[in-house]
Amino acid sequence: MSKVFLIAEIGINHNGSISLAKKLIDQSKYAGFDAVKFQKRDPDITTPDSKKNIIRYTPWGKLTYLRYKKKIEFGKKEFDIINEYCKKKKIIWFASPWDKKSCKFLRKYNCKYNKVASPVLTNLDLLKEIASQKKHTFISTGMSKMSDIYKVVKIFKSKKCKFTLLHCVSSYPCEDHNLNLKMIETLKRKFKVRVGYSGHEKSVSPSLMAVCLGAEVIERHVTVDRTMWGTDQAASLELNGMTTLATMIRKFETCKGDGIKRFLPTEKDKLRDAKYW
Question: Percentage of the chain surpassing pLDDT 70?
Answer without folding.
Answer: 100
